[in-house]
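F.,

This is the one I mentioned.
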């Protein structure tokens, strides 16, 4: 059986056509770069343009906030079992990281932080999250769901921080 090949425009190596991404806009229906070269080029672009891309995605999030909420709500209503499972899983994680010595007063203060985040959104139009300073399930350390480990920060900062402990 004859195997079809194509030369990559980046590395110049002749490779089987399954090493190229399909692209209907191209003459032969394949990209000019092999998947490996395209992946390297994309990775390098993301590395060089990290701040530009971050700004773009932040603006996109702000401009499409309502649409994203609508999509999430639709997904939740169409996938109630998965949605409930995810919510319960996160509750359990929080409960495991909730010490027995926490007081009712501290619970009220924690609730107040969540209210503060909501109020800041109403005042500023910027979305805020209640962040765990030391993540509940970090790779190196795990914090507790207690007042001293919580802070109200911009959602974009919390999402960029992800599950890392920032010193």
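My design for it:
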């Amino acid at each position: 059986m004859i195997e079809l090949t194509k030369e990559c425009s980046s590395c110049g190596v002749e490779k089987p056509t399954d090493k190229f991404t399909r692209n209907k806009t191209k003459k032969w229906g394949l990209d000019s770069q092999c998947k490996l070269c395209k992946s390297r080029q994309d990775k390098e672009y993301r590395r060089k343009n990290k701040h530009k891309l971050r700004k773009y995605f932040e603006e996109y999030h702000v401009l499409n906030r309502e649409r994203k909420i609508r999509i999430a709500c639709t997904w939740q209503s169409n996938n109630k079992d998965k949605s409930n499972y995810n919510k319960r899983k996160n509750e359990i994680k929080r409960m495991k990281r909730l010490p027995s010595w926490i007081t009712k007063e501290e619970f009220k203060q924690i609730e107040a932080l969540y209210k503060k985040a909501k109020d800041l959104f109403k005042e500023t139009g910027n979305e805020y999250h209640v962040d765990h300073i030391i993540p509940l399930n970090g790779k190196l350390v795990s914090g507790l769901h207690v007042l001293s480990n919580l802070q109200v920060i911009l959602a974009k900062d919390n999402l960029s921080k992800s599950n890392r402990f920032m010193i």
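The CA atoms of residues 101 and 146 lie 10 Å apart.

Talk soon.
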